[in-house]
Amino acid sequence: MSRSRRLILNAAPVALFIGIWWFVTNFVLVQARLYPPPLAVAEEIVRIFSNEGPLGEPYTHAAATFFRLILSWGIAFVIGTLLGVLAGRKRLVFDFFANPVWIAMAVPSVVWVFIFLVLFGIDNIVPISALVLLLSAPVFLGTAEGVRAVPSDLIEMCDSYKIGPWQRLTHFFLPCIAPYMVANARVSFALGIRIVLIAEVIGLPNGIGILVAYWSDTLYMAPIVAWGIILMAAGMAIDHLVFGPLQRRIRRESVA
Question: Does 42 score more than 90 pLDDT?
Answer without folding.
Answer: yes
